[in-house]
Amino acid sequence: MLVHTxxxxxxxxxxxxxxxxxxxxxxxARMEWQEHGVTLLPLGTLFAAVRLPGTLVHAVAxxxxxxxxxxxxxxxxxxxxxxxxxxxxxxxxxxxxxxxRTWQQAVEDWRxxxxxxxxxxxxxxxxxxNADQERSDLESYWSVPMDxxxxxxxxLRVARLIAAGHQLLLDQTAAQEAADxxxxxxxxxxxxxHDAPR
Length: 198
What we know:
Blueprint (H helix, E strand, L loop, with lengths): L5 H13 L4 H14 L1 E5 L4 E7 H8 L4 H11 L5 E4 L4 E7 L2 H4 L1 H7 L5 E3 L4 E5 L12 E5 L10 H31 L13
Helix pairs in contact: 3-4, 3-7
């Protein structure tokens, strides 16, 4: 039985990610990972990305703490890789390259929730594989690391996560509107009232 260490799996995943680039671009990407912690990789050949707004992900996780979010995403997506853009408060679930074509209608339905799918013709900032939420100096990190080459999020699980988060946000909005309405209708009238003289 062949057992691979985590470092070996990470190196294999790195080679797999870099295979989206032509040979001459791989050294540049490695240098950018080393110097900046992130490099741009083209989407649509080996994988695509589903952008999830932070509000939606945090609603599902019931937290915005990176460790809590990572645990919920890892469970909901069965360990599928997810990148967090800390500055923009967005998450990118890596999915099979066919998803932008097969999810066209769903993406239209989810557009109002801030969900988008990116494939051919776009690039994604991909952090180096050892960048995780414990590195607070990094703008981009792996909320759920890519554990092995070609290990991607199952599209159905991503769709369920989006549906759950969207419903939670709708419920929160409705509850807030109801609370606001109740607060305004129960506002006491204070002060003296003087009837006009007859």
